[in-house]
Design a protein that fits this description.
By secondary structure, this protein is of the alpha+beta class. It has helices at 3-10, 16-24, 95-100, 132-143, 216-223, 266-272, and strands spanning 28-30, 33-34, 48-50, 65-68, 72-77, 123-129, 148-156, 163-167, 170-173, 176-182, 190-199, 202-209, 243-252, 256-261. Helix content is 18%, strand content 31%.
């Protein structure tokens, strides 16, 4: 039997692909000798050991579940938690880790249950799929723009218009590849916003993206000289990024249109009164 398959059989808490990565890094030994190939054969009588310390921290707080059935799970993602790790090896707890024991979808990857994502610093409604069929149904709705998403944000600087549709294409910034910018050669991006309240030089707004470009809301509001408060990339630092995924309207099995709501954090009200 291949070493990665054997390790996954003996220690099923990790997927075979994860064991392959650990083996390549020398964490798994056969008869006391570190193996560096996942394809190495384990023979009868061999002793296989590993020197892995589980570095993924225990969740220091609960992730609130807004809704759950046999097909989907909807959570209120806390600020500061990654949706999923960037690679197979993971040193911090993610939403994907939370979904892993509840789903059969993508369990051999670093994205079990994940069908869409929120940035680390964004809180709010996030949905996971519990099986492949549901994942396909939900992903198609995101791709076809059949979902309706509503965000709440606090911005620095009051927009000139009380409400407007922003239609500005977005592209990756070649000078800072991890960031994005408004660019005439970019991909189409549309956002509706409405000012709900103002206080001094801050505004509480609702945002409804019609497209799903990376950093879309943050880039659009920064372009209007009203960056989202606490945006370390496109604005100024604060106690947190004041961007919250408030509602998600989507069709779930079986053909039920539902709207899921994550209450706006109390920190938003406090921030608007100071």
């Amino acid at each position: 039997m291949r070493l990665d398959s054997y390790a996954q059989q003996i220690w099923p808490e990790y997927s075979r692909s994860t064991w392959a990565k650990y083996i390549e890094q020398g964490f798994v030994s056969i008869n006391g000798v570190p193996a560096t190939s996942a394809k190495k054969s384990v023979k009868e009588g061999d002793t296989v050991t590993h020197s892995i310390i589980d570095t993924a921290p225990e969740l220091a707080f609960d992730i609130p579940i807004l809704y759950e059935d046999d097909n989907v799970i909807v959570i209120n993602k806390p600020v500061g938690i990654l949706s999923h790790s960037k690679g197979v090896l993971n040193e911090e707890f993610t939403v994907a880790d939370f979904f892993r024991s509840r789903t059969s979808y993508n369990v051999d990857t670093n994205r079990p249950g994940i069908i869409h994502r929120l940035d680390r610093d964004t809180s709010g409604v996030m949905m996971g799929a519990k099986n492949d069929e549901t994942a396909r149904l939900l992903q198609k709705q995101f791709q076809d723009r059949k979902t309706k998403k509503t965000y709440v944000a606090i911005v620095d600087g009051i927009p000139k218009e009380d409400e407007a549709n922003i239609d500005l294409p977005i592209a990756r910034n070649p000078k800072q590849p991890s960031t994005f910018r408004v660019d005439s050669n970019g991909k189409s991006a549309q956002t509706y916003y409405k000012v709900e309240d103002t206080h001094r030089k801050k505004a509480l707004i609702t945002l409804k993206p019609h497209t799903g470009r990376t950093h879309q809301l943050r880039v659009h509001m920064a372009y209007l000289n009203s960056p989202i408060r606490g945006d370390r990339v496109y604005g100024k630092k604060s106690s947190r990024l004041f961007l919250h995924a408030h509602q998600l309207e989507i069709t779930i099995p079986t053909s039920r249109r539902e709207t899921f709501t994550a209450p706006v954090p109390t920190a938003f009200e406090k921030e608007m009164t100071t």
